[in-house]
Amino acid sequence: MRYFGIKGKLFTVILITFTLLIGIILVGSAYYFEPYYRSKKIKNLKEQMVVFKDQNLGSKIYDKELLLDRMKAFSDQNSSPLIVETPDNELLYPTDNFIATLDSDGQSLLVDLYYPIVDMLDKGVKLNTGLDIGFRGFWENDKFIAIYLSELDGKKLESDEEIDQLEEWQDLETVRGKIVSYDMPKYDSGYIYRQETLLYLIDKYEKNSKKVILYTDNATGIDNYLVKISHGKFTVYSIFTTQPINELLSFMPEFMKYVIIVAVFLNFIISLVITKLIVRPILEIRNTSSKMANLDFSERILIKSKDEIGMLSEDFNLMADRLESTIQEIEYSNRMLLNELEKEKQLEQARKNFVADASHELRTPLSIIQAYGERIVDKYHFDDKFDKYMAVILEEQRKMNKLIDDLLELSKLESLTYKMSLDQYDINEDILEVIDRLFAIFEDKNLKLHCNLADKGTITADREKMSQVLMNVISNAFKYTPDSQNIWIETVNCGELLKVSISNEVENIDSIDLEKLYDRFYKSDKSRSRKMGGTGLGLAITRMILNLHEMEFGFRKSENRIEFYFVYAFFDTQTVAPLV
To answer: Per-residue pLDDT for 368 more than 70?
Structure first.
């Protein structure tokens, strides 16, 4: 599996986090900015209208010109036209004068361009002195109110049939001439559109009691919100249109391309910087810990900050110092231990050599004593006491030979060079053979033997050595069981395990120390052990043989009974818990 370190993970997490944040901002801008902006603007417009109403319509007497000036200031400040309906149902609203003076056949004509100015500027018509132009409209006092542009540079333009068909404007007149002068305030097509729409909505929804009314212009698709506030007999109207928002949102896709490119670049740079600031100290700790894992304590982490990473570096350096000191102490202890083990090994070897040499040296004189003793017994008979004494000498010589044989056997097993000869056989047969060989003791002591052997007793082991184990343990049970008492010998199959158990009743069971039973020459009752014979090495040899076979074994004792058991695993030689 490919390695993906903390640096890559942290960088990926930060990059994804920033990307999601940018995505949320973009989605919010695309789907939630317009409703939020609209709601906020309408709320602010209503608040400003309330302020205007309280400041200017609080008294019954008002100055019309002053009110119009303040309405003009309100419209300029809020970019929304304001119209006040008086108690006389008169609509008051400030207007800009779009005036041009024409020279028509030597006659000076004053023309009001309020109505056609929007269409003119949308068509790209620029007013300049000397421009030959014509309008359709009507006269009001000494001023001609132009409705639409009809001629330009001496050429007639298509008439606005919808306007010509209006009943009130069927008698429109035409004026033409060259522009002598003109008065044109700063043109704001959006403001003019909003004011015209406001006038239309006031007329359409005059009797509607709602405070805010939505109107969608089918021609432009622009949403317009009529806002109305009443104050006594005065009614204040204003309008909020989504035209500026729509214009802004129309540029959003193109603008967002650049925003996304810049955001992704900055996101990448910021993620890289943050990753380096956090991960670099961690990588230093990792590199140093890798060297420490190879027992190289030559480096320490340079602490550059006092934050959590700096504290971690400080603790790591302290741990490295203590670990280095501890390892040095352990190495020193190991060297001392190796020296002690070497000395112990040398002593053990010396002991084994001594046992082997002593056994060899003792065997020669004992052989001579035995030979001469047997010769004397065979050829020279003096009296009964002589025969008795010579029998004692030969018996003791036999015991010493047995002791020497056991010492040599134990030394060979402890050398770890003994090679077992494994055979497959039925251990139940060997148990019965040992019992038969010890039958004389069984009869002399009138013992009660309870023998219960399993049907399946086939094992794979060194038969000679395992027979020695059985002889040592069963003979001990026969020898140390009081007269007329019980002995139990059984083999039990438990799945993949075979348990062999030899138990017997004993006297003074509290005096038996189970931990020392395997010790060389251990005798819980020295006088009784001497009487029973034995070298005191049988259980030590038994332990070595069972260890070589990797069997579980041990002693257990109850009220007046002691048990020795060992467990053979048919398919697995690993240690298993003893069966109960």
So the answer is: no
